[in-house]
Design a protein that fits this description.
The complex is a heterodimer of chains A (about 120) and B (about 110). Chain A is mostly beta strands. Chain A contains no helices and 11 strands. Chain B has about 110 residues and is mostly beta strands. The chains are: A mainly beta (about 120), B mainly beta (about 110). Chains A and B meet through β4, β5, β9 and β10 of A and β6, β10 and β11 of B.
Chain lengths: ~120, ~110
């Protein structure tokens, strides 16, 4: 069974540009999560999508946005890139949301570098 | 708010040494607790988990016990190998409307032959 996949592996942009990162969840998973792993800051929760809806959002500015498509894949968009957006962006997927926590499975990440 | 604190790294050990990485948490209610491992250049892999107090998670020789009285989930391994060199993250998670993982800052483990 294929795991969570992310593309591209690496992305280099300049300040002010927009970046689009993509994620395909494990088959059967309807929830997709995005996390930012910036150097020295650990992993920070960004966004959670389930069944096409944004369910929860971390403490990030509105220029971080995303969406989930009918096939449950997801896009993360970062507008007006700043140098501090340079980070590894990890996507995770899980089974549908429910009362109990559902284990999240992580992809390999997209390394975004802003010059 | 909810948070996870884990010991600063790097932790440098010789092969076959005993490993402890401390993790404590602050949380309301009854979260699940996790240890994730990140090998160089890779994403996160779930190493072990515990879903309620006094549960012991174990995998690949690693163990951690969910201690509610001390709000801790320390990671231990009796004999580390060079291949265990990685960054280890402690995390807590809730279900329901929150359903996100809250991570510690990570601890780099370097095992020398």
């Amino acid at each position: 069974e294929a795991g969570v996949t992310q593309s591209p592996t690496h992305l280099i942009k300049t300040r002010g540009q927009q970046a689009t990162l993509r994620c395909s969840p494990i088959s059967g998973h309807t929830s997709v999560y995005w996390y930012q792993q910036a150097l020295g800051l650990g992993l920070q929760f960004l966004l959670w999508y389930d069944e096409g809806e944004e369910r929860n959002r971390g403490n990030f500015p509105p220029r971080f946005s995303g969406r989930q498509f009918p096939n449950y894949s997801s896009e993360l968009n970062v507008n007006a890139l700043e140098l501090e957006d340079s980070a590894l962006y990890l996507c995770a997927s899980s089974l549908a949301m429910g009362a109990r926590y559902n284990e999240q499975f992580f992809g390999p990440g997209t390394r975004l570098t802003v010059l | 708010g909810n948070s996870v604190t884990q010991m600063e790294g790097p932790v440098t050990l010789s092969e076959e040494a005993f490993l402890t990485i401390n993790c404590t948490y602050t949380a309301t209610g009854y979260p699940s607790l996790f240890w994730y491992v990140q090998y160089p250049g890779e994403g996160l892999q779930l190493l072990l988990k515990a879903t309620k107090a006094d549960d012991k998670g174990s995998n690949k020789g690693f163990e951690a016990t969910y201690r509610k009285e001390t709000t801790s989930f320390h990671l231990e391994k009796g004999s580390v190998q060079v291949s265990d060199s990685a960054v280890y993250f402690c995390a807590l998670g809730y279900g329901g409307a929150t359903n996100k993982l809250i991570f510690g800052t990570g601890t780099l483990l370097a095992v020398q032959p």
